[in-house]
Amino acid sequence: MSRHLFHLLNVFAESTFGGNPLCVVENGTDLSDHSMLKLARQFNLSETVFLLPSDRADAMLRIFTPTGELPFAGHPTLGSAFVLQKLKAPIPSLTLETRAGIVPVTFSGDRFTLATVGGVAAAASRTCEVVTSALCRMLGIEIEDIAAIPCWIDTGSEQLLVALQSADAVRRIKPNGDFAAHWPANRRGRRNVLAFALDERPEAKIGTERQSVSARYFFAGAQGVAEDPGTGSACANLGAWLAMQQRPLPLHMVIHQGDLIDRPSRLLLDVTSTGEILVGGRVIELGQGWLDLPA
């Protein structure tokens, strides 16, 4: 038997049962890809991470959903940094190797912040192949709710971004599962949408306060449409989208996500004057355990 320690975390959480749940397995060296996928299905969380040695960074991350591997994801990266910081002597920062590249992470108390690979300059965009009216039918909203042409953005994990006119429009989304098979798919075949609305009121931009963003992230699969409580990769893509919209830099925002599914998440987004994209949030550990697996 081989023993593997794991940690159960909530990332982007401001309270014990908020944020996005995550499992981090400390040592995945002797696990096959098939075993990693089986374990991700066993935990049945949005992502399970396996830590491996790296000759390019402090550790390598293998990030699995119950259906396959991801090149990059935000809350698994921050959660992994939390675990590694506990395992090492206190350090102010570390680097993590992902399929998308080397990701630096810094710490301040219980808040962790990652920088995307290449920032705005490395972000890719492309038009959405599904017409906007069809997207509205899929999301259960009106065409008048759309604030900008939907498009794909990729800063490490490609997602479809749909800007809406108001936080009320974000709250009113009711995805129609009948259209799940027709949702637009990214280059890896994953069907996902980040719908968001910026708080454009003057008082939302005064002083050093972060501008508020209401957001919901949906993904479609064989079981219909599900909602993710806190999506760091989508937050990074939002930063790139805002820069592509010629928003003045730097940007400082707080993304409110997960409230409508009783998993409130708060994601801190910064885009620096040089185009660096930073995504941060709080990490809370709920527990630890171990797996005994056949050798």
Write the layout of secondary structure elements.
Blueprint: E1 2-11, E2 20-25, H1 33-43, E3 48-52, E4 59-64, E5 69-70, H2 74-87, E6 93-98, E7 101-108, E8 111-115, H3 119-122, E9 124-127, H4 132-139, E10 151-154, E11 159-163, H5 167-172, E12 191-198, E13 211-221, E14 224-228, H6 232-244, E15 251-257, E16 265-271, E17 277-293
Parallel strand pairs: 2-3, 4-6, 11-12, 13-15
Antiparallel strand pairs: 1-2, 1-17, 3-4, 4-5, 6-7, 7-8, 8-17, 9-10, 10-11, 12-13, 13-14, 15-16, 16-17
How would you portray this structure in words?
This protein has 295 residues and is an alpha+beta fold. Helix content is 19%, strand content 39%. The protein contains six helices and 17 strands. The protein has helices spanning 33-43, 74-87, 119-122, 132-139, 167-172, 232-244, and strands at residues 2-11, 20-25, 48-52, 59-64, 69-70, 93-98, 101-108, 111-115, 124-127, 151-154, 159-163, 191-198, 211-221, 224-228, 251-257, 265-271, 277-293. It has an eight-stranded mixed beta barrel. The chain is globular and about 60 Å long. The model has no long low-confidence stretch (mean pLDDT 94).
